[in-house]
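I had to read the description of the data format several times before I understood it. The format is easy to grasp once an entry is in front of the reader. For illustration, here is how one protein appears when written out as sequence plus structure tokens:
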Amino acid sequence: MHQYVNAEQKKDLSRHLSVKCNRNSGSKVTDRLQPVEPLKTEGPSIAEIDSKRKRESGVTEASPMRLRMEAFIKEQQDEIVRDLERIDGGAKFRRDTWSRPAGGDGISCVLQDGNVFEKAGVNVSVVYGTLPRAAIQKMRVNHKALDDPSIESLEFFAAGLSLVLHPHNPMAPTVHLNYRYFETMDKTGEGKAWWFGGGTDLTPSYLFDEDAVHFHKTIKEACDKHGRDYYPRFKTWCDKYFYIPHRGESRGIGGIFFDDLDEETSDQESLFSFVQSCCKSFLPSYLPIIERRKNMSFGKNEKAWQQLRRGRYVEFNLVHDRGTSFGLNTPGARVESILMSLPLTARWQYMHEPEIATMEERTLNTLKTPKEWA
């Protein structure tokens, strides 16, 4: 078995268990963990134990949370891919599977040049590894369960579902989603610390209020089932995270974003239920929007504006997104997976300003000042 060390604080590791789920052979989590010399072990690894457990007993409500999260995100990936292929009505997702010698696997599903989607990625990543003492010490800032100073190393598990959809039609918005789970364990597989992270956000080139309201209301309804303070708290977090400082504007109209949700927020079952509700709300939040906008008429001016807005999307991902930056600076990283979230086409035009009293100007003004939609 290989040992893996975290090159940066866990916040960065957990935050972008993303599609960057493209990340290694399909997932960025693994791109961010660097293999060191193999360790000699006398018994089966936790990954091997879990694999045997799944073969013999399947995954039930009595299974460890890591196996339940893995099963859930793989089920969601299949459902989302089926519905997106139906919406596109032409292209099919290319499905790449991968596995890691140290434990873990993943599935990267990517569609390009479809009828509706210029580029779409829906990826799952599951990773096992070992955290050294230095990485554990950094994590203690956010997780009291790791306070024991005698711990020299811990096994870890990370799993996430991520997607990014870039439609052809400028009237149809780009959307991003990522839900993830991180867990540390001792050599026997007994859990030491755990947390959930994730969120979803909408990035329109042309703002339609009814789309923004629908997207946010659907997410809010999912959040409200678990905590009345969740939506306002995580919407504010999302608005702050996806802000582009050098442009003075947001990447899109937001949604929700959260990280490090552990026992200090709620119990594990309750948070898993919350993440499930949020993830399952994605299709109801986005499909009605793409159905309304995918066949709207547009011209070259609208397409040019979309390309400019996609340039902003690229700027955020390459300049400010922590996961992308970390992955691209990691030796041996799978660049194609890391950059899967980027659109096929984008545009930069010198000193461009939208005309006054146009849909373009209204959209840009809204991106400069976060708005309450639900």
User: Anything to note?
Assistant: The chain has 13 helices and eleven strands. The chain has a mean pLDDT of 85. Residues 4-368 form a domain with the oxygen-dependent coproporphyrinogen oxidase fold (CATH 3.40.1500.10).
